[in-house]
Specification:
alpha+beta, globular, single chain, HNH_nuc, four-stranded mixed beta sheet, endonuclease activity, HNH endonuclease, hydrolase
Length: 451
């Protein structure tokens, strides 16, 4: 029985891998073009009101019956088809198979006659994940037509359960998630916690990690503490990044209940709300966005600059943090958090959107003289970091640019730490021979930092 590696080698040697890739690409292009032509025809069907000719009152109803589509899919198709005639450049690129239906749906939320050419060009150069980041803060052209219904509603189900629903703006939502993080910490007790530490995001996460690391002991059977092995800097960094952000899904319910209990047990109205610590990114030309919520319009975020308890990251033209506003206790971990904020708290590899289990990679290896400074660091998820380590991908710098190279010749370039764009393919080896020599088994790497 052949292994996966043996199978991969066999495919490569026979050219079978190339046939498979060509089949995937050609069929994907055909599928996109077919859907585009279907939607163009559907736009005509809707324009001429043909549904009534076939015994239906709406185009969506006819689609659901004729093509056996789910009603939600039918309504979505009609919505997209109605908008295509208003955007000829988008429709032309879509019919040419230049980007997917998912990209078309996403672009339609932001398109206007004035920005159509710019956004279509952007979609042709970026992966979908990077396109979402590029349009962070732009806002939705559809949302602008109606005022958002911010609310908090409570209703009772038939069995007596209480059903809660809410909609908050981006900044209030960030403060809510920060409060949940403190509530999660309260599950382990706040008696030994300085209340000023609760206003510091990094300190809250450190305290939470310490509490979670403590063994659970029956009070009647308390034993002498077992000596703990000192945590390495590498493990501390991994733990810190994996824990970033709001409580994970499994902890959300208990965190909400704890927050309710905290309010009921200590109903105090302070002048400054603790824990509403929010990171805001701003470029030198004034564009702002909220890491972790790229859909938040820039204007909404700007409105909170003077009112929220926040940390403002001012980025220079190279994408490096120039200034960290309202900082406290910033040491190495704080600088690395600034690195994550520059990359929107997610893996920097093109096409990857992982936000947990992030590691730090030295672009110029530490053992080869690379510095542990922001300009030489890049966040990668554990999977993408493994791809670099296993020589399936390679990351290097060329002046202000960061270049991502992948087996097969594909190449992406992040110019001044902006979103990586696909560029001309490369030929020759993935990694220079000198880098391959450094990865030999007899080479001893320095220290235990993630490199």
């Amino acid at each position: 029985m052949s292994t996966a590696n043996e199978t991969s080698i066999e495919y490569s040697s026979t050219g079978r891998a190339g046939d498979i890739v060509r089949a995937i690409r050609s069929n994907q292009t055909w599928a996109v073009q077919s859907r585009a032509e279907m939607l163009v025809a559907l736009a005509d069907f809707e324009y001429f009101g043909l549904a009534e000719s076939f015994g239906e009152t709406s185009t969506a109803g006819w689609l659901a019956r004729e093509l056996k589509l789910a009603p939600s899919t039918a309504f979505e198709y009609v919505s997209v088809a109605r908008q295509l005639p208003d955007f000829p450049l988008l429709t032309k690129a879509f019919r040419g198979g230049e980007f997917s239906y998912s990209t078309v749906r996403f672009l339609l939320k932001h398109l206007s006659p004035d920005n159509e050419a710019q956004l279509v060009d952007l979609a042709q150069r970026l992966c979908f994940t990077e396109l979402r980041q590029a349009l962070a803060g732009l806002g939705s052209s559809q949302e602008a037509e109606r005022e958002p219904d911010y609310h908090h509603r409570v209703r009772h189900a038939d069995n007596g359960d209480v059903i809660v629903s809410a909609r908050l703006n981006a900044m209030d939502g960030a403060a809510y998630l920060a409060a949940l993080k403190i509530a999660q910490l309260s599950n382990y007790g706040l008696e030994d916690v300085d209340e000023h530490d609760l206003a510091d995001e990094e300190k809250v996460e450190e305290l939470l990690a310490e509490k979670q690391a403590q063994p659970e002991v029956d009070p009647a059977e308390e034993l002498e503490p077992v000596p703990q092995k000192r945590e390495s800097f590498s493990d501390a960094l991994k733990r810190s990044f994996s824990r970033f952000g709001p409580p994970v899904k499994d902890d959300m319910h208990s965190a909400l209940l704890s927050m309710i209990a905290m309010v009921r047990s200590r109903p105090v109205s302070d002048l400054r709300a603790p824990g509403a610590h929010v990171n805001i990114m701003m470029t030198t030309n004034g564009r702002t966005w909220l890491p972790g919520n790229l859909a938040a319009p820039s204007e909404t975020v700007k409105n909170y600059l003077d009112n929220a308890m926040l940390r403002l990251h001012l980025l220079d033209n190279d994408g490096v943090t120039l200034h960290l506003g309202r900082t406290a206790r910033f040491v190495n971990n704080g600088q690395l958090r600034a690195l994550l904020a520059v990359w929107n708290y997610q893996c920097a590899m093109p096409g990857c959107s992982h936000t947990r289990f992030l590691e730090v990679h030295h672009i110029k290896e530490w053992s080869d003289g690379g510095s542990t400074n922001l300009e030489n660091l890049i966040p990668l998820c554990s999977s993408c970091h493994s791809r670099v380590s296993n020589r399936q991908a390679h990351i290097t710098t060329n002046g202000r640019d960061i270049e991502f190279r992948f087996r097969g010749g594909r190449r992406f370039v992040s110019r001044a730490r902006q979103l990586p764009e696909e560029t001309d393919a490369f030929t020759g080896p993935l990694v220079p021979q000198s880098a391959i020599d450094r990865s030999a088994p007899d080479h001893e790497r320095g220290g235990d930092f993630d490199d």
